[in-house]
Design a protein that fits this description.
Length: 161
């Protein structure tokens, strides 16, 4: 089980990877299956969710690793937590659900983040996703220019764990 704890240890690393924000009603495994079927991304779920310490708790996020058509690495992560390691759920009553936390609160309008090494591929994939009815919307951006340094480091660590 991978736990991300030190996000500032990477201050000297070059973190210029392309990112697609994806909004879709599909569950993470459905989206991965669909992306594999139509774009041959070979996304496979990691055996255990990735744990991220945030706000005094430990939150779990599902991560899928794959490759693009040139064999370069891809990583898709859910932006909404799939659970928590804390005992928050024991105090819930019948009408409450398990709390969720966004991996990147500044991008809470995205359900999934797909990180790619190949900027051209990510840009082309954005166009293809926007034309598909299973995807509400998608947007290409460079993580190192549009996210804060801690957010970029967090994505970098998740991608490389």
């Amino acid at each position: 089980m991978a736990r991300v704890t030190k996000i500032n240890a990477l201050a000297s690393e070059k973190m210029d990877f392309s990112t697609l924000g994806i909004r879709s009603e599909l569950k993470d495994y459905e989206l991965a299956y669909w992306l594999n079927l139509y774009f041959d991304l070979k996304l496979i779920a990691r055996p255990e969710p990735t744990d991220v310490q945030s706000g005094g708790g430990v939150w779990e996020y599902n991560v899928f690793d794959g490759v693009d058509h040139k064999g370069e690495g891809l990583c898709m992560v859910t932006n909404n937590s799939s659970g928590t390691k804390d005992d928050i759920t024991t105090d819930l009553n019948l009408f409450e659900s398990t709390p969720e936390k966004h991996l990147l609160p500044s991008l809470k309008h995205w359900d999934y983040l797909l990180m790619a090494e190949n900027a051209e591929f990510a840009f082309d994939l954005e166009s293809a996703l926007k034309r598909n009815p299973k995807i509400t919307t998608a947007s290409y951006f460079e993580a190192h220019t549009q996210l804060t340094q801690p957010e970029t480091h967090l994505l970098y660590e998740i991608r490389n764990n």
